[in-house]
Amino acid sequence: MTRSPSFALLVTLAAALAVPASAQADDRPNIIYVMSDDHALRTIGAYSDFHSTPNLDRISDQGAVFENAFVGNSICGPSRAAILTGTHGHVNGITGNGEPWDSTQAVFPRLLQQAGYQTALFGKWHLNSRPADEYDEYTILTGAGKQGFYYNPEVYSPDTGTRTIPGYSTDIVTDLAIDWLDRRNQDEPFLLLVQYKAVHVPRMPPLRLLDRYLEDVIPEPPTLYDDLATRTHNASAVNFLLTDYRPLRHYGRYDPQRDIYLARMTDQERRAYHAVVDPQNEDYWRMRANGAYDDPRAMRAYHYQRFIKDYLRIVDALDENVGRLLDRIDADPALENTIVVYASDQGYFTGEHGYAEKRLMYEEAVRMPLLMRWPERIAPGTRIDALVQNIDLAPTFLEVAGLAPLDRMQGVPLAPVLRGETPQDWRRSIYYHYYDHGRHQVARHAGVRTQTHKLIHFYTDDTWELYDLEADPMELRNVYGTPGAATVQAALEAEYLRLRDVYGVPPETFEAPFL
Fold this sequence. Notes:
515 residues, alpha/beta, ten-stranded mixed β-sheet, four-stranded antiparallel β-sheet, 11 helices
């Protein structure tokens, strides 16, 4: 049994909000779960003034923003497995992107399907075997290491096999979801998963947005030039620092064997793409030859501008499509009792600390966006401060459908916090564990985060980092081992060991060899 000690009381508290198991199918809410990939919180209007996302903000304005939602492992496959199963990676078997996925294990879509829900999935899957029987209908992105392509993507569905759909991936996934909504059985509740490739690399915005922000200077994050001086060597060993910029090759040097993503485009699309990108690259090479970027700070500043503009263009396309989906939902009176959830599989560094990736247990990567709209239960404009985790989504979806979470599940239903109040016995910390040792030159590490502090253990070389998130929210000063931090350090080390025990993390995980 791996639930937290307070689980029994949480279930009691949740009963007041839960849908009774005896409820008729017509009374159970529909669930639409929309998920992006690598979406940084600061590029969502509900979390920051940095960027406007009017359609995503419709969900938060009409429902709730989870201020403190976290993943247990900030990479794609493990996060998706945790969401589906309600368990950490050492339980569901997905500790890294290369692990085989047991498609027969208990996942919330299958449990809802067995309880009478229609189930459908469209978009990115990114687990190492196809869905089994948990979806009545699905179409998933394939190719590019199961990441999918932005242009004219290859997809697979059991009915049609592998095929190419012309168009832009984000638009196509929305088209498929809306088409399914139009065809669904209106007499039964449903679960619909809409899962985008956006905002994952390699970032290729749609042609309609390619020149957006071209003349703008996007504000830099305050920590863009962080020297990482107080951290362990693990923080600077990574290979995703914004350093030497390497632009796309000129249209005239296009090689379909090497440029597999451009190869998905028609020649007309490639020409249009290069017509915007090539002049920027020509200017870059000219400036670089003249020494304009010899200073590493100047190079980082330039790299950041090119990176963040493509990132925001793809976010904008994502926001447009969330708007299309919401318009379809809001225009249908039969969908009034529908829970709409928006999340990303994890957060992302968008220049903070000089990074452009995820994986590390710093705030930008470990925090995930989570927005939820449910008119019958959530008041508009609710902001939820409680510590929640991606493992909580599966038990939450089961409970709102009148089903009890499985004993195996390590997350807890979110019903007690949906009113914006945190019960006194709610979890006081979250557990994190990154296993893919050496990928992107990131060492294995685990840790604990509370409302006020964070402890990170790079256990392959037994080095530690400790941050006071109230005094140092940008995590610039590692205070592990300093006299003033001794008391909180001891408390966090004890909590770290407690969570490892609560979740049943095998002790041998922390012993060499680290593969």
